[in-house]
Design goal:
134 residues, elongated
């Protein structure tokens, strides 16, 4: 599970970067920041697909069991991916409306969901480590 989680962590970093670049754009109105947001969204979504493949492999090989907190964790990860996908559609607009207010709001919500998912992910990781130590 450790090396398969790398795309997930990189994807989360990209989505957190989108929040940062959206905040910067809302304060400066410099179009470069919207381009950065769009690139980070694209990279995060592509890495999210790779992470989903790794998760499917973990589920199929029974390295990850769908019990307890794992359901909520996977639901939160799916919510992050769906929010980021909608955010990518919003960021395809022109100029100011590509970020303010909808894109920035979606970025902020995605950021908060990533934080909550991280807490549940730590719990899932502890369960996985205890299970693999047996």
């Amino acid at each position: 599970m450790s090396y398969r989680s790398l795309p997930l962590h990189l994807s989360a970093a990209c989505f957190i970067g989108v929040f940062a670049t959206d905040l910067t754009y809302s304060r400066t109105a410099e179009m470069m920041w919207t381009n950065f947001s769009a690139w980070l969204l694209t990279a995060g979504l592509l890495l999210g697909v790779l992470a989903a493949v790794g998760c499917i492999i973990d589920l199929a090989s029974r390295r990850l069991e769908l019990a307890g907190v794992v359901w909520l964790y996977l639901a939160l990860l799916l919510a992050v991916f769906v929010l980021a996908l909608f955010n990518a559609f919003i960021h395809s607009r022109d100029a100011w409306t590509s970020v303010v207010p909808t894109g920035l709001t979606l970025s902020a919500i995605t950021f908060v969901v990533i934080l909550v998912a991280g807490v549940f992910g730590a719990t899932v990781n502890r369960q996985y480590l205890r299970r693999s130590a047996r």
